[in-house]
Recover the amino acids of this structure.
């Protein structure tokens, strides 16, 4: 390692402490480099493959073929619609619940928190197993038609989003003074629907949007539940594509990564000014 | 809380706001789990029995749990250690600030980049036709000739780390932020070397958080189905894949055993999430 000849900025650190700091910086760079290699290589390799669909030239042929695939847009749109409904459903359930638990029923908080964590305890493959056994047999038989299965799928997605949605909304509620805002609205004569619509929702915009985007990122390419419910959504489509085509899957992976990046990047952007929660 | 306040609704209105939540959870989270639990205890003649759980020692079931546990443990330990080092590097390692927010955003993306696209990305990297496999050939190493395959224990481990490491980073960064500058200064004033500070002060404080998050990673890998399915077509003997096969068509030739396998998985997940919450609460005492 070379020692820099430029004058060091004046610091309060003792000279004894300076050497270990330099050493730790070296290790930090090394670790970051290793991490970067591990994460960048698969993405780079995939991107490289996605450009090679035409012989001897690098180009976007794989993307053109992917977007021209007759199953791409229908399955993607179906997943998009599912995601939107799951997000709306999740919001309609979680926002009042988180609000109530914060304001009126704090004793219920541990119970609600526990239930919102259930999607972590019940893996998707087990959940869909249970859903099929619960709704796939008489007297319920809700998995009999494509449409009714789809309703169950959307509900399952809403349930899967509970951990993220609840935490996001709960953090948002903590960041504002729910009690004072509610009391102020009440003293001006507002009823609960008005309080929800005009006070709580607008103040929760960032929290709701990040919860929604996170749900979107999880649901849009979801495979397991859709697969066993025999739904023609984007996840099963991508799995089929991976098995049946050579270049298109690479373009698909790049597109999926870009979508996830867009969702998470937007979250990072909108939550940046606020510090924690 | 003040008794004089006028409420717009009656008393049952207090419960109205949370009612949809409980009904919905009962229908789509608790109900399915209860059905599986009930069926796993059901004897063929209709009575209740623990027989299905006794049959979990069936070699197919044992080896699928075994492989799942080995992969989950390996990725939890490697992902946990490397994720911790990465979090340390960007928060306290003296790297320029932008790396930190960059890594945070990237970790958010990568921890959610599981499933089919992740499997595809690694097929193009380390699969038979993958770029890295080809690179190895250029330097004269036939990767697949050495017995390596992406569709194996080590292959899956490498793939899973792609979402395990970022999850560790995301959970651990706030914990590292919780280490107070005062503690380091106090240690240094008492003559501690940085090594001593880490060994005697920082590490013991962080330990519950590190262990807890590793347990979370364990559960995260243990319950993963989509990535493994997309990678292997559901053929590797992994617990989640076995459950998947059982859904499509009773491969165990014993429906009751299938339910017991699913419940066994729920129990292991519950244990890991429970331990994680416990350790997280413990670490909040210092890092809150």
């Amino acid at each position: 390692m070379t020692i820099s000849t430029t004058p060091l900025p004046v610091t309060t650190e003792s000279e004894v402490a300076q050497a270990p700091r330099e050493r730790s910086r070296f290790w930090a760079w090394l670790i970051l480099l290793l991490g970067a290699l591990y994460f960048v290589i698969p993405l780079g390799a995939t991107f490289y493959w996605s450009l090679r669909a035409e012989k001897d030239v690098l180009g976007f042929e794989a993307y053109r073929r992917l977007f021209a695939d007759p199953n791409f847009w229908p399955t993607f749109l179906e997943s998009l619609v599912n995601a939107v409904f799951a997000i709306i459903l999740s919001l309609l359930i979680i926002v009042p619940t988180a609000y109530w638990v914060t304001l009126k029923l704090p004793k219920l908080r541990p119970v609600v928190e526990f239930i919102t964590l259930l999607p972590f305890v019940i893996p998707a493959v087990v959940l869909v197993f249970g859903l099929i056994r619960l709704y796939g047999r008489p007297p319920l038989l809700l998995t009999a038609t494509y449409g009714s299965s789809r309703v169950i799928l959307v509900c399952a997605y809403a349930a899967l989003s509970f951990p993220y949605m609840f935490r996001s909304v709960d953090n948002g509620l903590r960041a504002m003074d729910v009690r004072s805002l509610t009391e102020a609205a009440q003293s001006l004569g507002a009823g609960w629907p008005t309080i929800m619509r005009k006070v709580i929702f607008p103040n929760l915009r960032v929290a709701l949007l990040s919860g929604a985007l996170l749900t979107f990122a999880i649901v849009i390419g979801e495979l397991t539940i859709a697969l066993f419910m025999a739904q023609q959504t984007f996840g099963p489509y991508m799995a089929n594509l991976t098995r049946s085509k050579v270049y298109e899957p690479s373009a698909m992976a790049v597109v999926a990564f870009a979508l996830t990046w867009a969702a998470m990047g937007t979250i990072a952007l909108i939550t940046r000014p606020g510090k924690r929660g | 809380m003040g008794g004089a306040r006028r409420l717009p609704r009656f008393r049952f209105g207090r419960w109205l706001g949370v009612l949809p939540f409980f009904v919905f959870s009962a229908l789509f989270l608790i109900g399915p789990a209860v059905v599986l639990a009930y069926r796993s205890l059901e004897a063929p003649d209709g009575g209740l029995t623990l027989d299905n759980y006794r049959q979990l020692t069936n070699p197919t079931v044992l080896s699928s749990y075994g492989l799942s546990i080995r992969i989950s443990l390996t990725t939890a330990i490697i992902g946990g250690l490397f994720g911790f080092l990465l979090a340390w590097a960007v928060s306290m390692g003296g790297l320029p600030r932008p790396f930190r927010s960059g890594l945070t955003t990237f970790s958010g993306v990568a921890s959610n980049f599981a499933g089919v696209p992740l499997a595809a990305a690694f097929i193009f990297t380390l699969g038979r036709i993958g770029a890295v496999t080809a690179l190895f050939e250029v330097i004269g190493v036939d990767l697949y000739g050495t017995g390596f395959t992406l569709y194996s224990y080590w292959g899956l481990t490498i793939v899973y780390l792609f979402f395990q490491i970022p999850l560790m980073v995301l959970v651990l960064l706030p914990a590292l932020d919780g280490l107070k500058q005062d503690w380091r200064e106090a240690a240094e004033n008492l003559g501690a070397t940085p090594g001593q500070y880490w060994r005697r002060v920082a590490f013991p404080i962080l330990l519950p958080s590190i262990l807890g998050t590793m347990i979370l990673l364990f559960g995260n890998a243990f319950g993963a189905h989509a990535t493994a399915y997309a990678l292997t077509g559901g053929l590797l003997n992994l617990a989640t894949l076995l459950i998947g096969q059982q859904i499509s068509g009773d491969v165990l030739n014993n429906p009751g055993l299938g339910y017991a396998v699913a419940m066994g998985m729920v129990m292991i997940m519950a244990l890991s999430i429970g331990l994680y919450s416990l350790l997280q609460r413990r670490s909040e005492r210092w890092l809150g």
Remarks:
- Chain B touches chain A through 90 residues (CB under 8 Å).
- The domain at 32-41+50-287 of chain B is CATH 1.10.3720.10 (MetI-like fold).
- Chain B has a mean pLDDT of 90.
